[in-house]
């Protein structure tokens, strides 16, 4: 359970959720081949509250660089950003396992650097796990972290932090060499001890093959329905942006709803019909 609490007398956090036992890394690992795992990204306390009853784990993704801060990629995201948003998501959730992305430059140098920064993330946020990108090159680091008590989710295929090396965000596995690389990367980090593995932006058949080949659950994003679970960026699937990646299905139109609400508010302010008697204070 979270050690972070919300004062519901002064907070907008309503209704008050009933604390319960959180899902753990072993519980997620045990879902391999069973009921599909539901995951979404969350960056704020309130979003976490709304998603928590429906998700098995919430990912505080470094995609917040683009979604929250308007950055061109995930590369500029800092450890401080991840810790601040990770703590907010933990405060807003009671059921889902919370996993925080390790940002670019915080773990690649050495296993010792990765442990130092991952330990900071867990200490400052209260989260239960970290996620890091990379395959065979990161296997030693994954094993190092797991042996020292830090649960890790791996991430292979299209790895956004490697956008400069990959040359863009195109799907991976279009030829035999790429397909073999995705499989080798997946096996390496799974064998190193990941309790789950995100497979992003790969050909459907490859994602299905990887899911059959590794012992830990696979979490697809732009991959295959045969993966052991799925994850999307919440703001994408809720329709917050005009551009929607091909692998995203829109389940809502929050941008449209927000625009309509703001338009109605602006009209009432200009007409001086807001505030009304219901929104102003008068002496009793």
Question: How would you describe this structure to a colleague?
Answer:
- With 284 residues, this protein is an alpha/beta fold.
- The longest helix is centred in the last third of the chain and has 18 residues, at 254-271.
- α5 packs across α6 (139-147), α6 (139-147) runs parallel beside α8 (176-192) and α8 (176-192) runs parallel beside α9 (204-213).
- The chain has an eight-stranded parallel β-barrel, surrounded by five helices.
- It is 37% helix and 13% strand.
- It has a single domain, classed as TIM Barrel (Alpha-Beta Barrel).
- The chain has helices at residues 25-29, 45-51, 64-67, 79-91, 111-125, 139-147, 163-166, 176-192, 204-213, 234-237, 254-271; strands spanning 37-41, 57-60, 97-101, 129-131, 152-157, 196-200, 218-221, 229-232.
């Amino acid at each position: 359970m979270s050690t972070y609490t919300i004062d519901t007398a002064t907070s907008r956090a309503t209704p008050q959720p009933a604390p319960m036992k959180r899902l753990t890394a072993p519980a997620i690992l045990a879902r391999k081949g069973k009921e599909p795992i539901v995951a979404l990204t969350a960056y704020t306390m309130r979003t976490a509250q709304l998603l928590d009853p429906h998700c098995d784990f919430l990912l505080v993704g470094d995609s917040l660089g683009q979604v929250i801060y308007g950055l061109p990629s995930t590369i500029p995201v800092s450890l401080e950003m991840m810790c601040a948003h990770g703590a907010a998501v933990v405060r807003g959730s009671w059921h889902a396992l919370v996993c925080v992305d390790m940002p670019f430059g915080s773990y690649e140098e050495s296993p010792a650097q990765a442990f130092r920064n991952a330990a900071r993330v867990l200490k400052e946020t209260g989260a239960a796990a970290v996620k890091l990108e990379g395959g065979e090159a990161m296997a030693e680091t994954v094993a190092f972290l797991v042996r020292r008590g830090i649960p890790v989710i791996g991430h292979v295929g299209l790895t956004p932090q490697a956008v400069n090396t990959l040359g863009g965000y195109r799907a991976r596995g279009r030829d035999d060499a790429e397909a073999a690389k995705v499989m080798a990367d997946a096996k390496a980090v799974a064998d190193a001890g990941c309790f789950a593995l995100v497979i992003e932006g790969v050909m459907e058949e490859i994602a299905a093959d990887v899911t059959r080949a590794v012992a830990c659950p696979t979490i697809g994003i732009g991959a295959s329905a045969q993966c052991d679970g799925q994850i999307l960026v919440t703001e994408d699937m809720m329709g917050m942006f005009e551009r929607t990646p091909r692998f995203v299905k829109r389940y809502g139109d929050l941008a449209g709803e927000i625009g309509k609400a703001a338009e109605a508010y602006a009209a009432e302010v200009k007409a001086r019909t807001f505030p009304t008697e219901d929104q102003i204070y008068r002496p009793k």
